[in-house]
Recover the amino acids of this structure.
């Protein structure tokens, strides 16, 4: 299977955007947890007792650590961080697929390769974090990243199916 670039300008733009986004992910993963800590900002805007009134009263374990409404700043930050994982890797997948669609690859192949590439980058991102002081790499976070990847792959697959059905 050979791949040629069929739309040079589109390919270059999407490739540049993909590389820039990968660099941004790498940069954020290189920061220590304390550099990204959102809890002090929350504390300056809303009191813990007030925040507790508006969050669901649930507790659970994630990566052997307790996440609980009883620590409201930690609780909210947890969900913001996980949402950032989903969005970051969903966007990487989107950009990767758009890059590959500017080549001679079949649409389905481009979608699968874009998703697989994004998954591999998610794995390498967590591995990279294991070397950063104050950070840890977690396989659970790869699964969270994969939510964004799968959503984008399904979106492109759905669009492909809808386009084929209408023609």
């Amino acid at each position: 299977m050979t791949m040629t670039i069929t739309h040079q300008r589109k390919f270059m733009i999407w490739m540049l955007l993909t590389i820039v986004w990968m660099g941004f992910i790498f940069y954020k993963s290189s920061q220590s947890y304390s550099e990204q800590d959102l809890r002090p900002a929350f504390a300056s805007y809303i009191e813990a007792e007030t925040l507790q009134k508006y969050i669901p009263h649930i507790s659970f374990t994630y990566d052997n650590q307790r996440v609980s409404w009883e620590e409201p700043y930690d609780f909210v930050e947890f969900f913001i961080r996980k949402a950032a994982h989903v969005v970051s890797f969903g966007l990487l997948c989107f950009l990767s697929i758009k890059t590959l669609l500017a080549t001679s690859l079949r649409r389905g192949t481009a979608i699968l390769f874009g998703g697989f590439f994004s998954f591999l980058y998610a794995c390498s991102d967590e591995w990279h974090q294991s070397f950063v002081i104050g950070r840890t790499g977690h396989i659970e976070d790869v699964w969270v990243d994969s939510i964004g990847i799968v959503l984008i792959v399904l979106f492109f697959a759905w669009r492909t199916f809808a386009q084929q059905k209408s023609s």
